[in-house]
Amino acid sequence: MPLGVFVFMKKYAMALLLITCLLVVYTPVHAQVDQPKPLEDFYAEYGYKSLDEAVKEFEQQMKMKVTLPKKLPSLTFTHVLARVDRVGGSEKLELNVEYLNEHVPENHFNVDIRPAENKLFIHEKRIIEQVRLKSGGKGVFVKVPGFHVFIFETEHWQYRLSMDQRVSDQFFPDELVEIANTVESH
User: Which keywords appear in this protein's UniProt record, sorted alphabetically (predicted)?
Assistant: First the structure.
């Protein structure tokens, strides 16, 4: 083998060895993978906390007891988070309760409660159907893109129950009426 080829191959082998050593030295042993934030942390950034904490805060601010539905949709939920929200930045308060499934995003049920004197105005064009509740009161199904929404009132509160429409094959809107019928009036 000519001397020039031998020197070239020796330099090539040394360069290859150097690159291999650099790759071994600078490759992290445990590659760090960005983990998504836990659902609770994400919601906490928007003021959500445990259901008990939020209900207690809401009742203290409203100086009145609130009742949550005793029945929930027949879907599985991994989290229940809630917050007290100022409606449109005003002094009017609302309790927002979110039932979520971390692994099945369409399993999403909301219960929003506000004082009856601050009730939502519902335009007739948005009403799909009126329903009489066991208590004798009325509730209405309202047209909202992507959700089944049922709104009803008790003596002191207006409730808005909403369910993601993507679960329509497992959840029927009439179930919202059954849920509403489990709310006791105070």
Answer: Signal
